[in-house]
Amino acid sequence: MSKIPFRVSPMLATLVAEPFSRKNWAFEEKYDGVRMLAYKEGSGVSLISRNGTDRTSRYPAVVAELTKLDADTLLLDGEIVIFGADRVSRFQLLQQGKGQPAYAVFDCLYRDGRDLRHAPLAARRTALEQALRSRGAVRLAERLGENGIAAFEAAVKRGLEGVVGKDASSPYTEGRSKSWLKVKVNQREEFVIGGFTAPEGSRQHFGALLLGAYLQDRLQYVGKVGSGFSDEILGSLHQRMKRLARTTSPFSSEVREKSATFVAPKLVAQIAFTERTKDGKLRHPVYLGLRDDKSAREVVEPC
Q1: With contact defined as beta carbons under 8 Å apart, do 69 and 108 qualify?
Q2: Closest residue by Cα to residue 33 from 16, 50, 17, 20
Q3: Full DSSP string of 7-33
Q4: Cα–Cα distance measured from residue 212 to residue 281, given in angstroms and rounded to the nearest whole number
């Protein structure tokens, strides 16, 4: 059987505060999904998440389409997403299984025996375009042009999550890189669940999640989220949190919630919010879903 002689961890973009434009950079749509590496080795395909978990069985339509690609060996990098009716990817659709998952592919690291990791991004994109011809469950990530400011304005107009700018001359390097820079249109970040409050009124199971992010080795409290939950999510999430219950707070800062039940900081939630206050708390947060592709220790406050 044909084999790819290595395994990789994904290259990660660095978050920047403002849109920008640079010569010889390309600007792509930032997708709101789950990062995934795809290994095609002969007739076999494996989908591996950013934390190394095999997710092949979770996305059979994507696997079936990857199997049909005209390449003996292929290593692709992209995002598993579900698009809404407005053609915008939304993590909550993926979390809730509402729609057909697609694989938006933005990089090609290996093709038919050739290691492309040290080739410039422009050459890898050419190889990717040659490998992909479908617009079904596997598709090319959309490029928004070479002008980063115009790309950001287009992303705002369409309601995209953001834009990723990439140095066209850069090789593929594992881990966080400044050759890929991301700018967010909407505020969506991951936070660690450190506890929950008691339900009030007609709500069952719990009232709100207590959230935090790591600053060095200390879990900083950033506030609570009480919206975005269906009855089914309230029940299933409560069951998971009960198994993690502890008597002491995992937060380094004080949490003034009389009804708080604290949990071991293991679960990671994706949260939408309007802004952060001066003391770092979330304003108008909404729960979008759990992330099983990231560990709690990866959730850090920006420096």
Answers
A1: no
A2: 50
A3: --PPEEEEE-SS----TTEEEEEEPSS
A4: 9
DSSP count for the chain of H helices, then E strands: 5, 20
147-196 tens-digit pLDDT: 999 999 999 999 898 999 999 999 999 999 999 999 988 788 999 999 99
Decide the pairing of beta strands 209-215 and 187-196. antiparallel
DSSP H or E segment with residue 211: strand 209-215
Question: Model's pTM, two decimal places?
Answer: 0.81
Distances 96 to 92, 133, 288, 290, 292 between C-alpha atoms, Å: 6, 29, 9, 10, 14
pLDDT at 163: 97
- In tens, the pLDDT along 74-133 reads 999 999 999 999 999 999 999 888 999 999 999 999 999 999 999 999 999 999 999 997
**Taking the CB of residue 20, how many other CB atoms lie within 10 A of it?**
15
Q: Is 224 a catalytic residue?
A: no
| In 29-137, alpha helices (H) | 60-67, 91-96, 121-131
CA pseudo-torsion sign 230, 89, 167, 21: negative
DSSP class of residue 201 equals: T
Per-position b or e across 178-203, b if 16+ CB within 10 A of its CB:
ebbbbbbbebbbbbbbbbbbebeeee
Catalytic residue, chosen from 3, 30, 98, 258, is 30
| 302 has pLDDT over 80 | no
